[in-house]
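Work through this protein:
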Amino acid sequence: MRASLKTLLVFALIVSISAFTTAIDKTYYWEQYNIEITVPRDFKILKNTSNEFELEGDGMEMYMYIWNQKKITIDDMDEATVTAAKELKLQEIDEEESFKNGDFEGYYVEGFKDGDRVMIAGVIDMNSRTNFFIVLTFDDKDAEAEKEALKILESIDHK
């Protein structure tokens, strides 16, 4: 009997942990482009138009905007992302990397500006001609937010 009670308690603990883990994120949809993105639960939509999708959470802001509607290559997007980072006048660039997530490919640049960490990612939807940028900003000293920003990029998917 004792072993089955222990098993039941362990099972209950696992279920409650997995329920908590799935409860901390929320998926939003950019309806015009059939794109979903998962962010921390505290994020709220500030703008959702055909050109812009803006969310804000505790200590982090996210801004997505359509770049162009032409079929482009990942090399074009790499170059465009670096150019966009230069136009933002980042004071330093710490990291540059490409990523692939399902039907989406992209390139991101992470840097620093005016006390904030800035991550800008150029993203190509390989199934359409939808190309967009995502800009994530958060406190430079918030290591957890940096992990969360990468997790957000990895969550981009189709609805």
User: Anything to note?
Assistant: Helices lie at 2-23, 74-87, 143-154. The two ends are 47 Å apart (CA to CA). The chain has one domain: 27-158. The domain at 27-158 is CATH 3.40.1000.10 (Protein Transport Mog1p; Chain A).
